[in-house]
C-alpha cells in the first residue's frame, strides 16, 4: 500500500515551480502524465501553476482515496451531502406544519379568552 499523501508536501513541491521545476506536486500525487506535461511546459506557461493553488487539496484527497486512506472520495462526499439535504427537506415541511398547528391553537385560545372576558 502506498503512503498517505500530505497537502503540505504537495504545496512545498508546487513552490518549486517558482524556480522553474513545475509539476513535481502532481508526480508526488501519482499523476505522472500531468506532472511531466507541466514540467516540460513550465506549468503551462505559469497559468497551470496559478490554477494548481486551488486544486491541490482536492487532488490530495483524491490520491488518498485511491490509495485507500479515506473512506470516501470527494465526489462520494458531495453525493452524501446532497442526499442529506434531500432528507432534511421533508423535516422542514413537518416543522412548518407544526408551527401552523400551534398558530391555530393560539388563535383558538385567544378567542376563548375574549369570550371569557366579556
Can you characterise this structure?
The protein has helices at residues 7-15, 24-28, 32-40, 42-45, 47-66, 74-117. It is mainly α and 118 residues long. The mean pLDDT is 83. The protein contains six helices and no strands. The N and C termini lie far apart (83 Å). Helix content is 77%, strand content 0%. It is rod-shaped.
Descriptive terms for the model:
118 residues, mainly alpha, 6 helices, 77% helix, rod-shaped
- List the total number of helices: 6
Count of strand segments: 0
Distance between the termini: 83 Å
User: Considering DSSP H and I runs of 4 or more, what fraction of the residues is helical?
Assistant: over 70%
Tell me the radius of gyration: 28 Å
Global outline: rod-shaped
Beta-strand fraction estimate = under 5%
Q: What is the succession of H and E elements?
A: HHHHHH
Q: What composes the largest sheet?
A: none
| Backbone structural class | mainly alpha
Mean pLDDT comes to 83
**Poorly predicted ranges:** none
Brief description of this entry?
With 118 residues, the protein is mainly alpha-helical.
Walk me through the topology:
Blueprint (H helix, E strand, L loop, with lengths): L6 H9 L8 H5 L3 H9 L1 H4 L1 H20 L7 H44 L1
Helix pairs in contact: 1-5
